[in-house]
Specification:
The structure is a single chain. This protein is an alpha+beta fold. The protein has a single domain, classed as TATA-Binding Protein. Helix content is 45%, strand content 26%. It has a 5-stranded antiparallel β-sheet with strand order 1-5-4-3-2, covered by helices on one side. A hairpin with a 2-residue loop joins strand 3 and strand 4.
Length: 119
């Protein structure tokens, strides 16, 4: 699962069924699985599976699977729905999400390098 940061103050709107209703808006029927951890699952056209786990009001984890043999229009529709969903959930557009992921990876790599030097 890939982790995404949620914009400060934006996570409150996802609690109490808010995340599930955003998923239903973009992907249709949503099912819940898991006992201790509630994972919401849906599918939409070329997006054969999207699992969403709200870790906290500042982080979500998402796992997706796509059909590589899907029609181009279905793939485009699924991609656009995914981006709309992600922007509504995280509060960040695609470019901002990429920039934040790069910054996080850079920070983690720097910390790992410093730890290796100290050992």
């Amino acid at each position: 699962m890939q982790s995404f940061e949620i914009k400060r103050g934006h996570g409150k709107s996802l609690e109490d069924g808010g995340l599930k209703s955003l998923m239903e808006e973009e992907f249709g029927e949503v099912t819940e699985k898991g006992n201790n951890v509630k994972v919401l699952t849906a599918s939409f056209k070329a997006l054969t599976k999207i699992d969403v786990d709200m870790v906290s009001i500042t982080e979500i984890k998402i796992e997706t699977e796509t059909d590589s043999n899907a029609e181009p229009n279905d793939a485009l529709d699924a991609h656009q729905a995914y981006n709309r969903f992600m922007q509504n959930v995280t509060g960040f557009n695609a470019k901002q999400r990429v920039d934040r992921a790069k910054a996080k990876a850079k920070k983690e790599a720097k910390a790992a390098a410093e730890k290796e030097i100290q050992s």
